[in-house]
Design goal:
With 371 residues, the protein is α+β, with helices and mostly antiparallel strands. It is built from twelve helices and eleven strands. It has two domains: 189 residues, Trna Endonuclease, Chain: A, domain 1; 168 residues. A six-stranded antiparallel beta sheet has the order 6-7-8-9-11-10. A five-stranded mixed beta sheet has the order 1-2-3-4-5. Strand 6 and strand 7 form a beta hairpin. Helix 6 packs across helix 7, helix 7 crosses helix 8 and helix 8 packs across helix 12.
Length: 371
């Protein structure tokens, strides 16, 4: 055990971090530095106080909950928040979740901050939404091996170096334990992203494998969108709920007529653990057994040079599970992608997945392929 937080995380990672943010805003030794990280030179540290897990009723009878809310001390009724925080240490929130917050906060002059594990694990879709809708994004960890001074860890290390010589208190002990914990996360995360090959999934390292997938998919999509900016308006992102870490990127077709006739609602690419998938989300009533869709996907991919490996382990699903409207007719284990006797290195895998994904999505976006 490196710090006391290693024990606390066993219960709830994000609640622990929300509670620590609250403490850091209240503790005199860290208050000003953390408030400056949130919104430089905006808040007076002596008049601000935080409330954890603040719940508000909405106009439609539902409720909205913010992980942390900052108020002015003169606001005795807690009716006018200065700033709200959505804390997502484990994964970024869904766009739907962010939209529900924005709907509640519309026409209110309230600062909005999204805390994330690392800026490198935030999907392009989420980053774009936050920029367009006034959400600031702050990371717990610096960007991989680079330091820019704008993360929680760097802020606390700087404050600790400046203040800790004069203070030997239980508060600073807690701050130091938290710094040690975040440094441990940074070390383990960096060990993943400098691997030369795709990491094997280990259940006991699920958290870091998931963060690696977020990091890896962001790199892939940044390159894809750099090659074809037309894909930008279509892309959405989702996360699997299974025990195996999973990231999905969707291309929703909504009400495009030619796809409606096929019964195709969206197509997607995904990495489940270490398995790369191409698939479709379809309406069973219209699409039936999905055979026509499978043939179209094969037409797109069969014979492509980018899918030719020395040890070919690509699987074509022969049957659709009729109870499920999500269908992945193509998948391959990233550990078995080989051009020679050795595994393809991570950079080569990244290049191949960019090529495969771009080919697949552009094929679907060309409606002439389905007329």
């Amino acid at each position: 055990m490196d710090s006391i937080f290693d024990v606390l995380y066993a219960a709830d990672k994000e609640l622990v971090h929300s509670a620590m943010l609250k403490f850091l805003i209240e503790f005199e030794g860290t208050k000003k530095g953390v408030l400056d990280l949130l919104e430089p030179k905006t808040f007076h540290s002596e008049t601000v106080f935080p409330i954890l897990e603040k719940i508000y009723p909405t106009e439609n009878g539902n409720r909205v909950r913010f992980d942390l809310v900052l108020f002015n001390r003169r606001d005795n009724q807690l009716t006018n928040p200065l700033l709200v925080i959505e804390n997502k240490f484990k994964a970024t929130p869904t766009i739907t979740q962010l939209k529900s917050y924005d709907e509640f906060l519309k026409e209110k002059n309230i600062k909005k901050v999204l805390f994330v594990f690392s800026l490198e694990t935030v999907s392009y879709t989420h980053e774009k939404y936050c920029i367009q809708n006034g959400w600031a994004i702050i990371s717990y960890l610096p960007i991989s091996l680079v330091e820019n001074g704008c993360s929680v860890l760097e802020t606390l290390e700087r404050l600790n170096n400046r203040e800790n010589k004069e203070h030997n208190t239980k508060e600073w002990f807690l701050v130091n334990e938290y710094i040690t914990s975040l440094q441990g996360y940074r070390k383990k995360f960096n060990e993943y992203i400098i691997l030369p090959v795709f990491p094997k999934y280990q259940p006991e390292k699920r958290f870091f494998h998931f963060q690696f997938l977020l990091y890896f998919q962001r790199k892939i999509w940044s390159k894809i969108l750099g090659l074809n900016t037309n894909l930008e308006k279509f892309v959405d992102v989702g996360y699997g709920t299974n025990t195996v870490p999973s990231i999905h990127f969707w291309l929703p077709f909504n009400d495009i007529g030619v796809y409606q006739k096929l019964g195709v609602c969206a197509v997607y690419t995904a990495i489940d653990g270490s398995t790369f998938k191409l698939g479709v989300f379809y309406n069973k009533t219209v699409a039936g057994d999905c055979k026509y869709i499978v043939e179209k996907i094969k037409l797109c991919l069969d014979g492509q040079e980018i899918l030719k490996f020395k040890e070919k382990r690509i699987k074509w699903s022969k049957e659709n599970r009729r109870e499920n409207s999500v269908y992945a007719p193509f998948s391959c284990d990233l550990h078995n992608m080989k051009d020679s006797e050795n595994e393809i290195n991570l950079e080569e895998i990244e290049t191949k997945l960019v090529q495969i994904t771009k080919l697949y999505l552009e094929f679907w976006l060309n409606q002439d392929n389905f007329n």
